Amino acid sequence: MPPTRVAATARLARRLGVGCQLSLETPMACGIGICFSCAVKLRDPSGGWDYRRACVDGPVFDAEQVVFDDPAE
Predict the structure, then answer these.
(1) Tens of pLDDT along 13-64?
(2) What's the pLDDT score for residue 73?
(3) Which residues of 29-60 are buried (b: 16+ CB within 10 A; e: fewer)?
(4) Which residues contact 45 (CB under 8 A, 6 or more apart)?
(5) Where are the domains of the chain?
(6) Which position has the higher pLDDT, 69 or 26?
(7) Which pLDDT score, from 0 to 100, does residue 1 have?
(8) Pairwise CA distance, residues 49 & 30, whole Å
(9) CA distances from 10 to 2, 5, 59 (A)
(10) Which Pfam families match (predicted)?
(11) Residue 11 Rama label (left phi>0; alpha psi -120 to 50; beta)
């Protein structure tokens, strides 16, 4: 699914107040987390953000945690 549609799905779930998990499609060059080509930007509990590797920590993430580089976000 295109990233804009994934972001729209996350926004819709938030607006409706339903839980949502997203399975993200990212390039996974090595598949074991060494190259960081699959890094996903996620919110952390302190209010900041950090990167997680989709091939190791995902590829499914809670929609509320994913940070989209989208002005509508």
Answers:
(1) 999 999 999 999 888 899 898 999 999 999 988 989 999 999 999 999 999 9
(2) 47
(3) eeeebeeeebbbebeeeeeeeeebbbbeebbe
(4) none
(5) 3-62
(6) 26
(7) 72
(8) 24
(9) 13, 9, 15
(10) DHODB_Fe-S_bind (PF10418)
(11) alpha
Structure tokens at 10: 């996350």
Region of residue 72 (phi > 0: left; psi between -120 and 50: alpha; otherwise: beta)? alpha
Q: Which residues contact 63 (CB under 8 A, 6 or more apart)?
A: 9, 10, 13, 14, 19, 20, 21, 22
Q: What is the third-level CATH fold of 3-62?
A: Dihydroorotate dehydrogenase B (pyrk subunit); domain 3 (2.10.240)
- Percent of the chain as helix, strand, coil, to the nearest 5: 25, 25, 50
What pTM did the predictor assign?
0.81
Cis peptide, bond prior to residue 59, ω within 30 of zero? yes
Which tokens go with 19?
Answer: 């839980």
